[in-house]
Amino acid sequence: MNTVILLTLTGLGLAALYFLVASGLSLVFGLADVLNFAHGLFLGVGAYATWWAAGNLPGAGPDGFGFVLAVAFGVLAGVLVAVLVELVLIRPLYSRTIEQVLVTVGLSLAGVALLQATWGADARPFPRPSWTRDVTSILGANVPNAGLLLIVAAVLVLGALLAFLRWTRYGLIIRAGVENREMVTALGIDVRKAFTLVFAIGGAAAALAGALGAVYFGNVSPGQGGSLLIFAFIVVVIGGMGSVVGCAYAAVAVGLLQQFVNYYGTSGLGDLCVVGLLAVVLLLRPQGLAGKVATA
Amino acid sequence: MSEPVLAVEDLSVRIAGLHILQGVSFTVAPTGVTVLLGRNGVGKTTTLRAIVGLTPRNGEVRGTVRMGAQSLLARPTHRLVRGGLGYVPEDRCVFSALTVAENLRLAERRGTTPAYDKVYALFPELDRRGRQRAGSLSGGQQQMLAIGRVLLNDNRLLLVDEPTKGLAPKVVTEVAEVLERVAESVPVLLVEQNLAVVRRLAKDAVVLSAGKVAWTGNAQELLLETALTKSLLGVGSGEVHA
């Protein structure tokens, strides 16, 4: 029983990480039709910026408020990079899918190379609050606090995103734009501002995933974003493009499946099962769990 | 003669290698309804979409479109709409996942007071169904929402594409009544296949054939010419019941 609880909660921790990466990816694809392979770069930037800030930014550090400040710096860096990518590289290429893919794939490769050139290819220990190295006993299972932190962060981000989509004008524009972008412009709305905004939101969530993921893994490395991005794409497809709620359901399904199968089967089998789940969903429900509608 | 509200000159549109519009020229009078007629596939919807800047990116638009002194073709759609060009698309295009109230709220513009009183006076049902998802409305109700959304703001010209398509006869009459009232205050360029609606609403007519203007003039006179109507539209005006 303890093992099941432990696997469930660590699986949810993994799901939380996937959700943080995939939610922005899903909104960007749902609204702007951009398949952003550079999304993993935002995660890497967030992780490295947090790591850098914890050691160098005045007031920031590995513990207490200093850590919060370091993470905030990392998130801000992720937002900045995401907005720049949208304004400079993506904006001239809307509706040019092939060029978008080439540019974003190139950018993700260049981003990893840049991180490697600056801080080396090896993983570096990540400064993290001491309590995140501890475990909390829940129903007899010792659950890593870093995983619980990810779950709390993902729930807060999910709540904030739903409130934003439900209650703000830009949220309304994004929900409408996911359904019919052209008609949004035909109502006199400059939908490009919403594109920039979803990139900023996606960049923030991915950068947060980078920082908290590094806490979870205990280190930061240049390739971390790319490997998580593969599962984030799977989550987006299973959840349905443009749906934050679908993304949350899919992240939970993928995280739990991976964790349980890897434990009770052989290591790595969980990854294969996730691909199998993707295939089943594509066969039975090609539009994903929640279709192409942004749900609030 | 008063200045036209819209002047289209030598408008050509190519999409994916197809030359859909081939030098179309016409004007829209500053009052009443000007109807754009023609058989299926002659380029009526393409004309409206070119005017409002919604030609697909793989399309090429040439010619001149002016609303007053303002040239329209180089401007993005959202600016044209904010400048007073209202557009009600074919198939309504309401946002099905949003509520009726949210569909209307989306059309509000910063710095202006949305005319909810006017919209709810024309379509009381929209007020009653504010919390209902637009996707669950009937076709007629969706059409009313699509028109209501545009009427929340002041317009200098309305482009309305096949508003009665697929609607029940009773609803067609209701939509025609609304457009008649709307046209009292704002000029309308209407694409319509239902000749009974055309007979009721239209003052002027422009008939397209194979991407070119085949006839322009008084709409009521056109409908009286059964042989001409039959040759241009493939249906005699006498066959249509009001």
SSE arrangement:
The complex is a heterodimer of chains A (296) and B (242).
Chain A lengths: L1 H31 L6 H18 L7 H27 L6 H23 L4 E2 L9 E4 L2 E4 H23 L1 H17 L5 H27 L1 E2 L3 H16 L4 H21 L4 H16 L12
Helix pairs in contact in A: 1-5, 1-6, 1-7, 1-8, 1-9, 2-3, 2-4, 2-7, 2-8, 3-7, 5-6, 5-7, 6-7, 8-9, 8-10, 9-10
Chain B lengths: L5 E10 L2 E11 L4 E5 L6 H8 L7 E9 L2 E2 L5 H6 L2 E4 L11 H8 L8 H7 L1 H5 L10 H13 L5 E5 L7 H14 L5 E4 L3 H7 E8 L2 E7 H6 L1 H8 L9
Parallel strand pairs in B: 3-8, 3-9, 6-7, 7-8
Antiparallel strand pairs in B: 1-2, 1-4, 4-5, 9-10
Helix pairs in contact in B: 3-6
Family (chain A): Belongs to the binding-protein-dependent transport system permease family. LivHM subfamily.
Protein name (chain A): Branched-chain amino acid ABC transporter permease
InterPro entries (chain A): ABC_transp_permease, BCAA_transport_permease
Please tell me about this protein's structure.
The complex is a heterodimer of chains A (296) and B (242). With 296 residues, chain A is mostly helical. Chain A has one domain: ABC transporter involved in vitamin B12 uptake, BtuC, CATH 1.10.3470. In chain A, the strands form two sheets. In chain A, strands 1-4 form a two-stranded antiparallel ribbon. Chain A has a two-stranded antiparallel ribbon with strand order 2-3. In chain A, helix 1 crosses helix 8. The mean pLDDT of chain A is 92. Chain B has 242 residues and is an alpha/beta fold. Chain B has a single domain, classed as P-loop containing nucleotide triphosphate hydrolases (Rossmann fold, 3-Layer(aba) Sandwich). Chain B contains ten helices and ten strands. In chain B, the strands form two sheets. A six-stranded mixed beta sheet of chain B has the order 6-7-8-3-9-10, with helices on both faces. A four-stranded antiparallel beta sheet of chain B has the order 2-1-4-5, covered by helices on one side. In chain B, a hairpin with a 2-residue loop joins strand 9 and strand 10. Chain B is globular. Chain B starts with 5 loop residues before the first strand and ends in a 9-residue tail after the last helix. The mean pLDDT of chain B is 92. At the A-B interface, helix 6 of A face helix 2 and helix 3 of B.
